[in-house]
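Colleagues,

Please find the record for the four-part complex below.
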Amino acid sequence: MSRFTPKNPDFAARVRDSFNRQGAMAHIGAELTRIEPGLADIAVSYRPGLGQQHGYFHGGIIGMIADSAAGYAAFSLMPQDASVLTVEYKINLLAPSEGTRLIARGRVIKPGRTLSVCQADVFVERDGQEHSCAMLVSTLMTMTGKSDGLASANKKP
Amino acid sequence: MSRFTPKNPDFAARVRDSFNRQGAMAHIGAELTRIEPGLADIAVSYRPGLGQQHGYFHGGIIGMIADSAAGYAAFSLMPQDASVLTVEYKINLLAPSEGTRLIARGRVIKPGRTLSVCQADVFVERDGQEHSCAMLVSTLMTMTGKSDGLASANKKP
Amino acid sequence: MSRFTPKNPDFAARVRDSFNRQGAMAHIGAELTRIEPGLADIAVSYRPGLGQQHGYFHGGIIGMIADSAAGYAAFSLMPQDASVLTVEYKINLLAPSEGTRLIARGRVIKPGRTLSVCQADVFVERDGQEHSCAMLVSTLMTMTGKSDGLASANKKP
Amino acid sequence: MSRFTPKNPDFAARVRDSFNRQGAMAHIGAELTRIEPGLADIAVSYRPGLGQQHGYFHGGIIGMIADSAAGYAAFSLMPQDASVLTVEYKINLLAPSEGTRLIARGRVIKPGRTLSVCQADVFVERDGQEHSCAMLVSTLMTMTGKSDGLASANKKP
C-alpha cells in the first residue's frame, strides 16, 4: 500500500490518459501496468526493434521506461492543474538485460511542491524470474497551470 | 580535428558496423552522421512515434541517441579486440526539444584503459538553427576480448 | 543482517584501519559507526566549521560522508589484496540538513568483480528523530593488487 | 569574457559576502579566486587535513569546492532578492588529485528562472601545471525572496 495521499482523486485516470497520448511509449509497445499514489510501473515485451544483436534490451529502452515510470509516479501526487517535467536523471546499468520482458517500477522518494525526487528499479524477466538490471534516480518538476501530463516532459520553464 | 589517436586504424568501419547491427537505432530511424577519433554524432528526424502530443522529441529518444553517441565516441578509441559497455549516465534536459531533427554530439572527455568518461551535447534543429536541449555525461567500460561493439551495452562483467 | 558474504574475513578491521588513516575524515570529526558485509555508516556531530550561517550542515560535508560510507560498504566485500576507488557519484539533496548530527548509511546495491554500485541514505538528527536529507548513488572500482583501502580514492587506473 | 549579463549589478560583492559567511569553506582554507557573470573559481592549497595518506586531495574536498564553484556561478546571475540552493550534482573523478593546489572552475551551462544547470571542471596543480582531475554537473534552484546566498544550500522548498 502506498504511503502517499494523492492531491488529485482522479490521479489514476489522469496518468493513464497522459500515458496513452505518448507516441514514443506506443511505438515501443510499452504498457502502464500499475498506478498507485507515488508508484507507477511500466513494462515492455521483447521484440527485435528494442534490442541489440544478442537479443538484450537496448540501454536506451531501459532508460526510456525507467524515466517514464519515475515521472508518472511523481505525476500521480501532483495537483489537478499541474503537469510534470523531467529535470534530469541518472541511471546505472547493473546487469545484462537478457530476457523476455522488461519492467520499470517507479516510486517517489521525496515529493515536493516544486521538485520531486523519484527512483525506478528495472527488472528483466528471464526463466520465470525477475532479475534486477538497472536503477534510475530522477528529479521531476511540477508545472502548475499546465494540465497535460508527462507529455510536456523535457520542457523547461 | 580530433586530439586523440585511435588504437585501431579501422575504428570508423568498426563503429559503423556496430551501429548498423543495433535494432533499436534502426527502429527509431537514427543515423550515425560523424565518426572521428573520440567523436561520434547521431541524428534522428522527427516522426510521430518519437514524440509527445506537442510534437517534441520524447526524453527517452534524447537519452537513447545521447548515450549511443557518447558510447561510440569511446568505442572509437578502443583496441580492436574490445567492445564497449555503458556503466552509467546522467542527463540534464535543458530546453524543450521542439524541432525537426535531433543531433547528439558525443566526445571523449577522458579516455582510460578500463573506464572512459564521455559527454554528449544534444541539439534540436528549429527554424534552420541548432538549439541546445540536453547534456549527458557517461562512464563507459572497455570489455577486452569481446569484439562486438556497443551491442553488448548494459552488460556487466 | 547482511545478505552478502565477505571475501576477506578481516574486512571490518581493514575498513577501520583505512578509515583511521584518512586525514579528511578526522579533520571533520567523522566516525565510522557501523561496518558489516556490504554496509557502512559514518556519522559526524555538528560544529561551526561544518556549516553555514544558519547552522545547517554544509552540502559538501554531506557529500563527503555519503561518498565514504558508500565506498566503505563496497570495500567491505572486496578481496584482501584490493583497494577501492570512487569512479563517480550523484547526490540529491532532499531536505534541509538542520540538526545536531549527520548519519550516512551506505550499502551495496550490486557488487561486481570490477565495478560495484552503492547507495547512501543520509539522515540528520533533530529533536531526537532521524530525518532523511540526502541520497547518493555511486560507482566504485576494485583496484586489485593495491591493498590500501579507500585512501586511494579518486585515483584512476 | 562572460557571455551572460547579471541581473544584480552588485553580484560580485554579494557572492563574496556569501562565500565569506560559509564556515565550511573557511574550515578547509578555500578561497574564491574569480567571480564574473556566470563564472566562479574556488581554490584550496594542500594540507594534511584535506587528504589521504598518499598526499592526494580527498574526493570529498573535490566535491565540496566543485559544488560551491558551480553554485556561485549560478548565484552570480540571480536577482538581488534571491538565494541559491543545490538540488543535485554528479561528479566524475577523472584522475588522481596529486598536487599542491586544487582549483574548481564553475560556469553556468544553462541559466533559468527557476532552475540552472552548471558545470565545474576541477584541476590540480602539479609541477607548475594544471591537470584535469574531476568534472561536476549540477542543478541549482533560485529561491526568490530569500536573499542570503549559497548559505541556504541543500534547503528544499
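The two ends of chain B are 34 Å apart (CA to CA).

Comments are welcome before we finalize the supplementary table.
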